[in-house]
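Progress report, Aim 2. The chain analyzed during this reporting quarter is listed below.
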Amino acid sequence: MGHKKEEENFSPDNNHKSDVTTTMSYEDRTKDYVDIDGHAHHACLENDKNGNCNGNGKAVVKYSRSDSSGKKPQSLFEIVYEIIKEKEQRTKEMGTLILLGGMALLFIMSLTGLCVMWFTQYYNNKMLENLILSKDSETTKSWIDPNPKFDTLLKVHIFNYTNIKDYLEERADKIKVEDIGPLVYKEHTVKVNVVHNDNYTVTFRDHRTYKFLRDRSSHDENISVVVPNVPFLAASQEIDKIKNPLLRGISMRMVRGAGGHAFYTLKVKDFLWGYKDPILTVKSNFGRGDKYFGLLKNRKGTSVDSLQINTGEDDIKKFSTITQFNGKPALDFWTDDECNRIDGSDPSMYPPHVVETREPLSVFLQVFCRKVPLIFEKEVTIYDNIDVLRYRTPLNVFGNPQENPNNTCYCQNTDRCMPSGVINATRCYDDAPIYPSFPHFFSGDPNIYKDFEGIEPKQELHQTYADVHPRFAFPIGGASRLQINLALHKGELVRSE
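Predicted structure tokens for the chain:
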């Protein structure tokens, strides 16, 4: 049935048939030269009577260095040889100087590089220390009550079922849905019930408030939509589990008397944040549960779930790792210890050493009741020339065990193992027929939505991603997208409408 949500800067997003309907989708030359002092000696083959050379004489030219000591003049070969030896000697001396100079330069460069590297690492370590959530630190104070300018946006899409009556009465072959959204809310989150423990952990709950942003929304939140009746469908499933025929009949009459139907028309505001439901009212009269229902009712205010995370004081590599969920070190929804592990990170911050090595990030998402991996994709530049690392969820993260064997333990204790793209989370939601997925069943088996018109999965709109600072690992942008699906159980109560 139809609702998806999307949180940006840290954000969620919509539907299923064959009995699953969607409820919501959140880069020197050196010259050496020698002066030669040479004299030309002319020997005449024929002299005139005055001893002068005649014009027919031929001259032989010899070169010698001036030498006051009376040494034998040098031949051209000897002079050249001497020059070469002198140049070799100078070259050797120069080479030695260059080598020594180069070694000195290399040493200086190495020393400088070492100093720069050491200083950079020292600087980075000092910066990383500012991430630590030590008690009464300025970082912790900002984490507990952040500046509103860092608030996230919650974008909600709801599927409006435009022909559900015709479909249920078999006058239409497919269910037509209309994506209503986004409905945008500013989400401010503070930490309450904060307790710093002796083992370098901190326990807390989230307290969220919301403000509707009409100028950024596609519709007003008072618009009416046709949506699944979640309390009615949940009651239908419970009634079918009753073995006693008499008790089952009485329960059906009570639900019928409350005026329940599989689908109803509600204002978006009521559907999301809560209204007094007649079926739940009857149930509460027997001391069972709340009279009010809203898909996001429990998200508003103080969370019913508590988290405990590592502060990073003893080891920065442990920073933000979840150590407990609702007081327990592991989940108990699944059959395998690996699936029940909760040692992923809080979605709002990640361990710096993991980001530095581009290793996959592991994020614990409460709505999915499990950890979800984020895989490094590429380096990108966002906003005003900010370089970040982009991570995305794998396409097979919710794959059927035949497609993704790592998901085997998510199917072993459920009545029904879903096709790829949908999670059977009934055990996590007290047996309520909740089947989360990505919006518009992105990356899911097309057979899931073959009976729908209006389902259009698109990666740029429906895949979860995070843009993370490459050194300090805090998220700068991204969108956490999910869709809440409700199974339309065709039990006795539904068939008798």
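The chain is about 25% helix and 25% strand. Confidence is low (pLDDT under 50) at residues 8-20, 27-85, 115-120. These observations will guide the mutagenesis work planned for the next reporting period.
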